[in-house]
Amino acid sequence: MLSIEWMLLYILLGLFVGFMAGLLGVGGGGILVPLLVSIFSNQGVNADNVVHLALGTTMACTIISSIASIRAHAAQGTVVWKVVYGMTPGIMVGTLLITRIAANVNSAYIAIFFALFMALVAGQMFLNWRPKASRKPAKFRGLFLAGTGIGSVSALAAVGGGFLTVTYLSYQNVEMKKAIGTSSAIGFPIAIAGTVGYMMSGWSQTVSVPYTLGFIYVPAFLIIAIASSIAAPYGVRCSHRLPETHLKKIFAVLSLVLSIKMLFSVV
């Protein structure tokens, strides 16, 4: 399953995803999940597990990228830690619960959900839609429930956490810069819970697949995580020179096309 050709492909994928994440300030899950599905399929992974393995591996890669993102936003003072602490328990519950359930769900249904969610994200990027702030910041119960919902969606769509968190916090009268910074911090517990959840739920189903820990393909995780962390700073530098609005639309189209391709390949 593992050869030098695949390792080189993982390096290129990590460099691309890391650069795009730094350039646009968005997670690379929309690109990473569909491409990993295609790569794993060509490597001979069982079709019943291929989407789960792509999601679990993407979640693991996100752990590394989210740490760098948290440090950058925390240094600028744009992380509302009270919100992070309030949402984290719900995120852990929602993510762990859904990853356990997802292990018994057909890959085709998860692919359909992923593609539909990417269509929603792409539409938001094109329209640059933001909800009108109309409520006071939620208390612990509201943050817990919001975290549970965001964690649940993120378990099935590795791009869901940032998109939903920014939207929710904007609605809760949180300033946009702080909403984005807080969202980056919330990405860490989502990634941790998603990684642990997919590792546990897939433990017995990937015993015959080499180099796996549950639904996490370790070589892809290590190579992509390292490569993306190297490329991300270069993306950040270029972000000040290139038209972000047009690039986000291109990114949205690319993510949507790849998701649809993944959908047809799985179904």
Task: Describe it.
With 267 residues, the protein is mostly helical. It has one domain (4-266). The protein is built from ten helices and two strands, in the order ααααααααββαα. The chain has a two-stranded antiparallel ribbon with strand order 1-2. Strand 1 (212-213) and strand 2 form a beta hairpin. It is globular.
Summarize the structure.
It holds the Pfam family TauE. Helix content is 76%, strand content 1%.
Which tags fit this structure?
globular, mainly alpha, transmembrane helix, Probable membrane transporter protein, 267 residues, 76% helix, two-stranded antiparallel ribbon, membrane, transmembrane
Total helical segments: 10
The SSE order reads: HHHHHHHHEEHH
Oligomeric state as shown: single chain
Number of DSSP-assigned strands = 2
Strand proportion: under 5%
What is the number of independent domains?
1
Mean pLDDT: 82
Q: What is the 3D shape?
A: globular
What proportion of the residues is helical, as a percent range? over 70%
Summarize the biggest pleated sheet.
Answer: 2 strands, antiparallel
Distance between the termini: 23 Å
Low-confidence stretches at least 5 residues in length (pLDDT < 50)? none
The Cα radius of gyration reads 17 Å
- Structural class from helices and strands? mainly alpha
Transmembrane segments: 7-40, 52-71, 83-103, 109-130, 142-168, 180-199, 211-234, 246-264
Family: Belongs to the 4-toluene sulfonate uptake permease (TSUP) (TC 2.A.102) family.
Pfam families: TauE
Main location: membrane
